Amino acid sequence: MKGGLFGRIALTAAALAAGLSFASAQNKGLENPRSTAFQESLKGKKVVFVPLSMGFDLTEGWAAQMRKQADRLGYSFEIRDPAWSTDAGTKAIQSLISEKPDLMVVHNPDIQSYARLLKQAQAAGIKIVQINLESNTTTDSYVGADWSEIGRKAAEAVAEKCDAGKGVSTKVAIDTGVPTAASDVFQLDGIYKVLDQHPDIQVVSQQATEYNPEKARSIMSTVLQQHPDLCGAIGIWDNQDTGTASAIKEAGKSDQVFLVTSGGGNQVGCENVKNGLFNLYISYNVPLQGDLLNQEIARLLMSDGTAGEVQTLYFNPLTLITKDNVNQRNCWTLDDLK
Amino acid sequence: MSTSAETDSGRQRIRAVLRSQEGIVLLLAAAAFVLFSVLLPSFLSPGNLLALVRSVSILGILALGMALVVIARGIDVSMIAVMVVSVSWAFVITRAGYPFELALLIGAGFALLAGIAIGALIAFGEVPPIFATLAAGSVIYGTGRTFFFTLEMQNVPPDTDWFRLIGQGSLFGIPVTIVAFAILCVVVQLVLSRTRFGWTIYAMGNNPNAARITGLPVRPMIVAQYAISALIAYGAGLILASSASAINARLFNSTMIYDILLVVVLGGIGLNGGHGSVRNVVLGTVFVGILLNGMTILNIDYTIQNLVKGVVLLLAIVIDSIVNPRDEQTSQQGDL
After folding, report:
1. How far apart are CA B261 and CA A334, in angstroms?
2. Between A84, A268, A334, which is nearest B250 by CB?
3. Whole-angstrom distance, CA of residue B80 vs CA of residue B250
4. pLDDT at B336 exceeding the cut of 80
5. Residue numbers of A between 154 and 183 with CB closer than 8 Å to B
6. Which helix (DSSP H) or strand (DSSP E) does residue A203 occupy?
7. Per residue in A91-124, pLDDT tens?
8. Could you give the CA distance from residue A265 to residue B252 in angstroms, rounded to a whole number?
9. How far apart are CA B13 and CA A120, in angstroms?
């Protein structure tokens, strides 16, 4: 061990002497001042993530990636978990406004609740990135899905299968989550914008499942009783639509009812595509969102601009997963990201 | 003479029905049933009726557990926490490579321990049940989320085909879920009406002090009740997970526990304990089932469905307090 160390020092000394004697920087490369600045400038900064709740694929995935970058670049990363309570989230943001971290990453429960607080936080000099669920207040950055686009894509896929003369009927069911979330309101708008162009398609049921797979199951089984010739179904979230799919499978109508759902592209959702429960799975690709999020965090932390000075947004591309492309590239597990 | 006496007794019977909450709910349920049968073409189809009962069977099973506790003048609002944590944990253990059957046993053990701990807190710590179970629910859920599993959503582990039969299979054309509910109804009914355990439950609900003074083992009984309700919650969780292919721990944050109370109170089991039976649970379950099924078929908006449920619960509680007025005992004991 020691011999090795001495040996290395001797070698280094020799190399140094050689370098000095030739007085050339050629084989030692060139220091990149921007790299030094990039690696150093973020040290000691503070980033806080306020999710809807930890404990589900989306927020755990983003957090894993954000934590990885924080460790790499030496800034601190904290999570304030309101556990699905909008009230607790409001309090968390309020106390953050007085703590003044350098940047907040906010996941909005609906478009209204945090709107005023986000304005106040920006006024207090905290930079804000919103992730995947928007608020009415635009901030330094928004990264995430364009929910209207997801709605349009889902409706187009269903219209493709169920428009007049194409499917067993023109009946379509929609399973929403909670009616006030941004994901729901914008997605429904997208769905109906497309369906309005296909007047033959009739929406026979539009029910809220509260993101509960068992409730989704019982709603779908009732709908199938009432409309045994149902042709298509649009679900708002893969986590709940496991139940929707169960009901369809149980009724023996997997080949008849075309089920579209959307989610973060987690392996659990992909399993359901593989075993034929989901016909189309629109993924907003959590690993990609995590990368984009990290890029935005680094950019904003390095910029000298004040909070809210320039407002940008980026709707990330969607991946349409079907049986043909369920693969390693399109699906992820939490362990992959950690 | 005899005919007028008969009509008199008939009239009395009708009056008795109208005076009991159970009777009123029965009439409401019948009215809703007839209304939906006339309005909705395929409401009466056997398929829909099975779907109807099945959709509320899990609720009914949970309500049976709750009823045992409520009749003995307790309440258990930790049932959902016990259910989601023990079942999710069993799934996580399986995915970590242990045999599925062993994992299920560990889950059952956890539920049992949780129930015993809650019961001990109430029986020996003399903490009011509502506070004990409210706090215990948060502790159990928090423990689960912190130590047992990170993700709220747990799919049923792969290669467990027999498990799927519990929630998705059927026996002579009747879904296993309904069969399980029916069997549990019979068991609980027998326990309540034919065993010393059952009689003690009524005695404790009627007058806990008298039960204690006459030498009934009140404290062990309390522990046993909460252990049973926890086990029932675990069983309901398994059926739920099996039928939806997944369980979502987020149910803990939902209104499900109030739905269970809705079934119990609506069916006519007073929250001040001492009376009620399985019949009431079945009635409450079926009524909620008819309402939910009808409203789903009518495609009524989510907010309005919640409004209807809320108004119905409120009405039931008001009727409960008129039919079972506060007496000397409840004013000494306080409610719950």
Report:
1. 37
2. A84
3. 10
4. no
5. 176, 178-179
6. strand A202-208
7. 999 999 999 999 999 999 888 899 999 999 999 9
8. 25
9. 66
CB contact under 8 A, A213 and B254: no
User: How far apart, in whole angstroms, are the C-alpha atoms of residue A139 and residue B227?
Assistant: 51
Q: List every span in chain A annotated with CATH 3.40.50.2300.
A: 36-144+286-316, 147-283
What is the C-alpha to C-alpha distance for residues B92 and B107, in angstroms, rounded to an integer? 10
Q: Tell me how close the Cα of A328 comes to any Cα of chain B, in angstroms.
A: 19
Contact across the interface for B48 and A222, Cβ inside 8 Å: yes
Residues near B266 by beta carbon (within 8 Å), at least 6 away in sequence: B25, B283, B284, B287, B288, B312, B313, B316
Residue A159 burial (CB < 10 Å; 0-12/13-18/19+)? Answer: buried
Q: Does domain A36-144+286-316 have CATH number 3.30.470.10?
A: no
Place of tokens 């404290």: B219
Contacts of A122 (CB under 8 A, 6+ apart): A128, A139, A140, A307, A308
CA-nearest residue to B300 within chain A is A207
Facing residue for A56 by CB, picked from B152, B240, B296: B152
- B55 contacts A218? CB cut-off 8 A: yes
Cβ contact B152–A55 (<8 Å): yes
Quote the pLDDT of residue A63. Answer: 95
pLDDT at B69: 93
What is the ipTM metric for this complex?
0.73
Rounded Cα distance between A168 and B301, Å, is 27
pLDDT for the residue A25: 52
Tell me the DSSP string of B273-331.
-S---HHHHHHHHHHHHHHHHHHHHTT--HHHHHHHHHHHHHHHHHHHHHHS---HHHH
Q: Of 3.30.420.40, 1.10.357.140, 3.40.50.2300, 3.40.50.300, which CATH number belongs to A147-283? A: 3.40.50.2300
Q: What is the pLDDT of residues B244-264, one digit of tens each?
A: 888 888 888 877 888 898 888
Question: Across the interface, do B48 and A60 touch by the CB < 8 Å criterion?
Answer: no
- In the block, tokens 């409450």 appear at B284
pLDDT reported for residue A252? 87
Mean pLDDT to the nearest integer, B176-194: 93
Interface check A225 vs B, CB under 8 A = yes
Residue B1 has pLDDT above 50, yes or no: no
Q: Which of B42, B47, B248 sits opposite A213 (nearest CB)?
A: B248
Distance CA B78, CA B136 (A): 6
What chain B residue is nearest to A85 in terms of C-alpha separation?
Answer: B253
Q: Which helix (H) or strand (E) holds B174?
A: strand B174-175
pLDDT < 70 stretches in chain A: 1-26
- Decide: residue A111, CB within 10 A, 0-12 exposed, 13-18 middle, 19+ buried: middle
Q: What is the DSSP string of A106-159?
A: E--SSSSTTHHHHHHHHHTT-EEEEESS--SS--SEEEE--HHHHHHHHHHHHH
| A5-14, B11-20, B24-33, B316-325: segment of lowest average pLDDT | A5-14
SS (H, E, C) B59-99: HHHHHHHHHHHHHCCCCCCCHHHHHHHHHHHHHHHHHCCCC
Instruction: Note which residues in 94-153 of chain A have CB less than 8 A from chain B.
Output: none
Residue A212 to residue B55, Cβ atoms within 8 A = no
Q: What is the spatial distance between Cα B191 and Cα B180, in angstroms, rounded to a whole number?
A: 16
